[in-house]
# Entry
Amino acid sequence: MERKYPHLCSPITIGRVTFRNRMFSAPMGGTDISNDGCIGPKSTAFYELRAKGGAAAVTVSECMVHPETDGSHAYHLDESILNSLACATYTADAIRRHGAMPSLELSHSGMYAGTYMTDKTRQHEMHQWGPSDTTRPDGVPVKALSQEQIADIVKAYGHMAGLAKRAGFEMLMIHGGHGWLINQFLSPYFNHRTDEYGGSLENRCRFAIEVLQSVRAAVGPGFPIEFRMSGSELFEGGYDLAEGCRIAEQLEPYIDLLHVSAGTYQRGFGDTHPSMFKPHGCNVYLAAEIKKHVKVPVATIGGLNDPAQMEEILASGQADVIYMARALLADPFLPNKVMANRDGEIVHCLRCFTCMAERAATSTRRCTVNPLIGREMEGDEIQPAPVKKKVLVAGGGPGGLYAAWTAARRGHQVILCEKEGELGGILKSEQALPFKHEMYELAGTYAALARKAGVEIRLNTPVTPELAAAEAPDALIIAVGSAPLVPPIPGLDGDNVVIVNNYYKEKDKITDDVVVFGGGLAGCECAIHLGQEGKHVHLVEMRDTLAPDANVRHRPLLLKEIEKYVTVHTGCKGLEVRPDGILCETKDGAQVLVPGTSVICALGQRSRTADVEALRDAAPFVRVIGDAAKVSTITNAVYWGYHAALDI
# Structure
């Protein structure tokens, strides 16, 4: 067959191993890590799903090589630990059985040992080791590794590599980026040693080279060794791209694949993991430049999820391999869809950071758009229902659409009714914000998948008790969503006020001086967009903090954008909306006018309780999901919709 994306779909040989395409699954940490560092069965299933979805390589992350100096709660390989080698073997086999090559990331956190612990107090109780004596920004002291310790760590890398090969891994990634130990030695910011491991570039590369030599001695010739590096540390005092090229030249003789990432995890999370506020592929230039200086294949990464863009990166010679992480959570079957010319069915990553926020907060995994993530052991294939039923879905937002799609795949007759003329629910409002346009497009993807599965979609059709009685469904899923909260504040119904949900329809009404009333997630993101358009934006919030409803990964990046574009007024209660702004009362009782000739009302949402109550008895099986049940997140709407359909 003729491939729509021939470069993405072409195989590549690295060392003596041939990979089936150029789409690789980047390192992502699992969840059920045992107390002694074994890979749990949930994590095995987590990695296996990306192999089943068509990725050419699946990298298991991270195996810490030296517990004596790095007590991070991550994977370990240790013959003295019961089941350690066995768990790794089962994981490698689970990946390999689907035609993907299992790879293991070998790592050492250095001065950031314990980073993956949910309980950060335990991290701070640990002794931290690095290239030099220092104190971390959070006040934790760091002690320089001795040459004897360095030699022991180098030996440990080789030992772990040998165990990984024995377990069935067919490639190894040596993590030398993102602020971990090898990067700390490479970096002039972290490395102030005066012995042969510090000072000149050659000396700063010595530790990395010794590690790579140790690994090669353990795995033998032809076994692919990949080195992951930050092309530039992207902060003052760290190495830049020019020095990144020189580092690559130093390491090239010892590796088979150079994986170019960006930034330093602890000082630039939004660089290493590009947020929705950055263009897709914003870090590709680093790989493209470094590729000019080396002959080994080069891999790139960073917010990539569009096959057309990835194909162009390969076709133009900017890289040889594309790595994806979040994109393969959103749609693990993205590579299979690309290989089969079904790219129109790809569910795209929103870059919302739900996946990483859940891991930091609860040590689990979730994905806003994919309810399988973190629960792969429950099965990734929709099983046909033993009895086919008639299912009515009220509401065409993300939860309703996902529920309808799932129910149709089970073989049910599904009718989805949407009271408005367009699907998407609250997602329709995101089309006006360029950095959230993928969230708006999500509804279109879900709708296309639902229609393909056989769902009958009726627009401009509210589900009433009368309609439900006429259809007589066996099951009713109520996904009628929420309505904007508009309290009885004088002037809030004025002509100069636009409800944030309606901004996409009324954006021409917004003047150059605007007040966003409400500092939750929706208000903050709208304020950023208005500021990016060049408007003068004031943000009024009664609470002392902004966006408490944003997740722990997205919120810091959101607040940085707020600082760039918005004048913030926290602790201000809105009393009256006027033609020239909002009259507010501060915490000390003073009244101030926050100026603006337009007002965006973003004071939250309220469940459509009356609509729900009217339909409670409209079918034998009734389930309420999404904002109709509780104003929450797209994540919950999708999860509840998926499981409601499985229960029918």
The chain has a mean pLDDT of 95. The longest helix spans residues 147-167. DSSP finds 22 helices and 28 strands in the chain. The radius of gyration is 26 Å.
